[in-house]
Amino acid sequence: MSQKPIAVIDASVVILVGLPPPKLEPKEYALRRQRATECLRSLHSDGLDFIVPAPTITELSRDGNGEELARKFFARLGGMQVKPFDLPAALVAAKMLKTAFASKAAHEARAAIKYDAMIAAVAHALNAKCLVTANARDFGKYLAEVASPVELIAADDVPQKGQLRLIDRKA
Fold this sequence. Notes:
Number of domains: 1
CATH architecture: 3-Layer(aba) Sandwich
Number of helices: 8
Largest sheet: 5 strands, parallel
């Protein structure tokens, strides 16, 4: 039995697409939301399974009920599959963080980079096809640290296929 390819979804995408838009949504934010929505539709039509790493729920829960937000978001994608931050992911995260921590001053906050590294580590440990985020710069360095084959997809970038490219050219 062959396993379907996996797309790991980061908290930034859940927030961008899953939260109700602000009343006065800036045009650029609306465009980013539209791009991210189209990106997810494209990945879904390509047959990828969507996975949320447990650290994504933790990150989403810092300021509220992250599990509820994630459940609503993933219900629109056919259900939520949560994967744990287990021993293989923990060992990969340690490798990813070694350089990052060495370059940080002792007084700098480390919490934000820990979430991203744990999410990237789960994607790597699952042999995911891709990690979908609206925060590609931060994830790229962690995946590169372990020479991960996981493709990084910036959900809110201009898509490479589909009609949205035409909309973006007029913007």
